[in-house]
Structures are given as structure tokens and as C-alpha cells.
Amino acid sequence: MRKVCILLILLLFTFPVNVLAVNKKEGIDNFPDSYKPYLQELKRKHHNWNFTALYTGLDWKNVIDNENVFGKNLVPKSYSTNWKNTTKGQYNVEVDKGWVDCSRHAIEYAMDPRNFLNELRLFQFEQLSYDEKTNNKDGIEKILYGTEFYNKIVEYLDSSGKNITTKSKYSDLILSAGQTSKVSAYHLASRIKQEVGPFLSHSSISGKVEGYEGLYNFYNIGATSSSEPMGAIKNGLKYAKDGKNASQSIKDKYMIPWNTKSKAITGGAIFIGSSYINIGQDSIYLQKFDVASNNKNLFWHQYMTNVLAPYSESKSIYTGYSKSGLINDSISFIIPVYNNMLEIPVDNPNISESDFITDSTKMYANVTDTLNIRTGPRDFI
User: Fold this and answer.
1) Quick one: which of 251, 276, 263 has its CA closest to 177?
2) What whole-number distance in Å separates Cα of residue 159 and Cα of residue 179?
3) Model-level pTM?
């Protein structure tokens, strides 16, 4: 009996308290009231969609405090001042070329899940595990439609510049990568579109970057921000070369070096699966905002710096599902809930009361309880 108690104590000290506090509850009824109207409307339109509340056990203010660190969350320099950190010495300082530190308000807006419980933006909460019942090559091709990856035989350059033509299409490689990594092949296809765009000429996958010839990184893994020209891309290709001085066991695990497109797509998928999805970061949102992983330090194991990356990627994923005819299939969403959240969602940083004072065509409402708005004209008796 004593051994059992000692083992239990060791386990409690081995795992972070925040991880133990995470609690998943399936079904709309298990969400806070402020989430329910949005989810009920989505369920009305898509009967096969499933929603799980992820109770993080984290205090909302504490979460924002930990995310509001210089350089951790960025926005384009072209954004309005409300989106940007205005602290003296930090305002408009380029952390990466064209990207600056964002405001606390921007983080609050981007992290409040209730702002994105609509068809177009919900997919940042999509569960990203591989599902053999739904994932197939035709669906992948439909997601890739409109890009140079669509229905395309894979070719690549080796380190000497020689062109190699394979017998596989990109959809073949992506499906195989999903099966191997246990990551949704549809997610992998969508992520490739998001990370490198629609063109095969993107520097991360061209095989032509000087000093990194014949190397490929389809998911921009390791592409951390840098002020050097093409700094982020070169950092990603450094990872493709040797895992940034990784051990041989890590290189073997992720199939590094990524000197063929097959190794880059599959090895990168294994990285995403083992480094994120399989440790609790099972959505784009959770990969950007580390609030539920099984690692020892929350808030730091984050895939990207763009504070609106989940917002942006969700549209691409929705479009892919919609065009593929998969939008009404069974899809699962994991949506975070925090302790002590505000009763109403955080406003978009571009919206402020002053915007409405001199414009009679707009109305501003500071509502603390309930606001009822007619959907159309009505006769009064």
C-alpha cells in the first residue's frame, strides 16, 4: 500500500498541475451559457458536427498575461494602432520583416473562442486526428484544387540541382503522411496551402535557396522569426537540413534531412503529430495558443507567431471542406473554456465607442444584460 501511495505522489509531482486540470465535456449543454447560442445555431445547420468543451482550468487574465510577452504574438506592421503594442521602445519594432508585436487587446480578441463560433472561423477548433473513414485522396485533391499541387505529379531538385520525377501525386504523399503520422490528411493539405501558398515556387519548397539547395519544408517547421532577409524561411530550411543540430534519434524519427518532398511531407507530418496533436494540442488554436499541452511549460510550445493565424487558417480549411463537399460530414471541434472569462466576447480591436460618436449611420451599444434586435420592420398598434 505504501508503494502505491509513493507512486501516486511521484505522479502528481511529475505532471504539471495545469495538465491535470484539463477536462473535456462533450455536447453543447456542457458549455457555458455565453457559448451556447452560437453552437446551437451551428448544430441546426450541420447536424453531424460535434462539439467538445475543453475546460483548461486556467484563469483568463493569467492566460493573457502569459501570452502578452514581446515577440510572442505578432501582427502585420500595416495594421492599425489598436492592433499593435504601443509601449515606448517596442512600438512598430519589426520582430520579423513586416511584422510587429501586437497589443494586449488583440491577444484577448484572438484568444476568446466565442468570437469565432461561426461557419467560416470555427475550423480553428477542428480536431486534427487522422480518420480513415473520412480521409481519402479525392477529398485531398478537392482541398488542393486551385493550387499548383492539384492533380500534380511530384518533381523535386536534389542537392546537385538534378530534377527528379516521381510516380506519385501530391495527394498520394499527403494521404500516406496522414496514415503514418495519425494526423488528418485534410489538415495536412490545408496547412500546406496556408504555409506555402498555392505555388510550387515558394522558397520553402523550391529546393533553390542558396546554401540550402535540395531541401524542403512544407509546413515551415522551425521557421522562427528573424530580421535577416528571408530569415524565417532559412531557419525552416536549417531545420530541414539537420533539425537544427538535433540528435540522430530525432533526425530518424522525423526523417531528416528533408531532401525529398516525400520525406518533407511525411516527416513534417510526424513532427506535427508527435510534437503537437499527440500531446493535447489537437487543433490549430491550441497549436498557436499553448493552453492544454502535456509539456511542462504552458504558453511557450507554440507553432506560429501570427496572432491571427488560427483565424486565417480556419477560412482556408472551411473553403477546402466546402469545395470538397465534406462540409456536412461528421466533424469534431474542441473549443477551450477559461475560468473568469468576461460575460460577453472581447471586441475586435478596430471597434471602439469613439468610432460611432460622429457617424449617425452606426450604433454603439454597451450591453451588460440582454439586447433584443428585430430582424425586420414591424407594425406597432
Assistant:
1) 263
2) 28
3) 0.69
